[in-house]
Specification:
There is one protein chain. The chain has 3 domains: about 120 residues, Cathepsin D, subunit A, domain 1, CATH 2.40.70; about 120 residues, Beta Barrel (Cathepsin D, subunit A, domain 1); about 80 residues, Roll (Pdz3 Domain). The protein is globular. The protein is built from 3 helices and 32 strands. By secondary structure, it is mainly beta. Strand 17 and strand 18 form a beta hairpin. The strands form 6 sheets. Strands 2, 3, 4, 5, 6, 9, 10, 11, 12 and 13 form a 10-stranded mixed beta sheet that branches. Strands 17-18-19-24-20-23-22-21 form an 8-stranded mixed beta sheet. The protein has a 6-stranded antiparallel beta sheet with strand order 1-15-14-25-26-16, with no helix packed on it.
């Protein structure tokens, strides 16, 4: 078959969502290039059983033996894709990760083995090619292991191994207990599947031949010996993976920059998190977005970290002194927000509690 297969996807909460039928089970799936295998919430997978396989859930630092099955038929947009990869039942410790997007499972990287796999954010499609598209010229060497696809980057002049992970909503995430945290901001976070804290650290780094200065990366405490390149960085590119040979894939990753990296999470932290509940903000085209403390009163107005804010107190963002966000309190100093809902503007009045 010479014709390319085009698979549209949607974006929800900084995740790539594909609607598909996996081994006969229809659902809404998260495409996660950081996942070693695919996972289904549904327990009715009846395909060939593969014995003696282990999966390590590093999120909770535990190992668990589980049944794996052969994934051999994926139907997306009336296209049937056959691949020889593994699939299993989603464990409870990962189901919580899928709840915010109501996903029915995770599609791992190797579901598209045998193709040149193009992840096009500009077209919002995954495109499977039999031959390499000629327009992709720039490339970066990859390290391919059974854990995924990795590249190397210098972050604050230190070399790190980074896994390409579309399932990670952050930009750059590292796991280095020796990383200098003198300027880090310690943010507490609590959810059904995560208790603890993470740090955000200003850093200089180079990725995909682009040098980025004074942007924040995320540091978390766990036992992984590598970092992650997540959704927020990847969405600035169209990317091509060589998945033709499952035993030798990923020699190179090809890429084309499609957006201005100046909008890549430029943070300023408030001085008192307890007063205004804005953890940080990042600039976007035409506005900003807030990352909010879990107790934030903005949630009741329908505002979350994916809401584009285009005016504060009636002042357009490009004319607003964003340095004031370090000290301003919601309702008291910030009394009106203008947001975008689809293609429509909406004004929200914040009343003093």
């Amino acid at each position: 078959m010479n014709k390319s297969i085009e698979i549209p996807f949607t974006i929800e909460k900084r995740r790539i969502i594909v609607f598909a039928s996996i081994n006969g089970i229809k659902g809404k799936y998260l495409w996660d290039t950081g996942a070693e295998i695919s996972l289904l919430n549904n327990n009715n997978c009846k395909n060939k059983f593969v014995e003696n396989n282990y999966l390590i859930y590093s999120k909770s630092n535990i190992s668990k033996m589980m049944k794996f099955y052969e994934l051999n038929k994926i139907c997306i947009e009336n296209n049937i894709i056959k691949s020889k990869s593994l699939i299993g039942k989603t464990p409870n410790i990962l189901k919580n990760k899928l709840k915010p997007i109501n996903a029915d499972g995770i599609l791992g990287l190797h579901i598209f083995s045998g193709y040149w796999c193009e992840l096009s954010f500009s077209k919002q499609k995954i495109i499977l090619h039999k031959n390499k598209p000629e327009e992709y010229i720039k490339r970066k060497k990859l390290k391919c292991t059974d854990r995924g696809l990795f590249i190397y980057s210098k972050i604050n002049n230190k070399k790190y191994e980074l896994k390409i992970d579309t399932g990670c909503p952050y930009s750059i995430k590292i796991n280095d207990p020796y990383f200098p945290r003198r300027k880090a901001i310690k943010i507490f976070k609590s959810s059904p599947d995560y208790k603890g804290f993470y740090h955000k650290i200003p850093a200089n780094f180079n990725l995909f031949n682009n040098t980025i200065n004074n942007r924040y990366i995320t540091y978390t405490q766990n036992k992984k010996d590598y970092g992650l390149i997540g959704f927020e960085y990847l969405l600035n590119y169209d990317i091509l993976f060589d998945l033709n040979d499952p035993l030798n894939n990923g020699k190179y990753i090809y890429f084309k920059k499609t957006s201005d990296l100046n909008y890549l999470r430029n943070f300023i932290f408030p001085r008192n998190l307890n007063n205004n509940f804005i953890v940080d903000y990042w600039t976007c085209k035409n506005g900003i977005k807030f990352e909010l403390n879990k107790r934030n009163s903005l949630f009741k107005h329908g505002i979350n970290q994916d809401t584009l804010i285009i005016e504060i107190n009636g002042i357009p963002i490009n004319k607003y002194n964003l340095n004031l966000l370090k000290t301003q309190e919601l309702s008291k100093d910030i009394y009106e927000l203008t947001i975008m809902e689809g293609n429509k503007r909406k004004k929200i009045k914040l009343l003093t509690d």
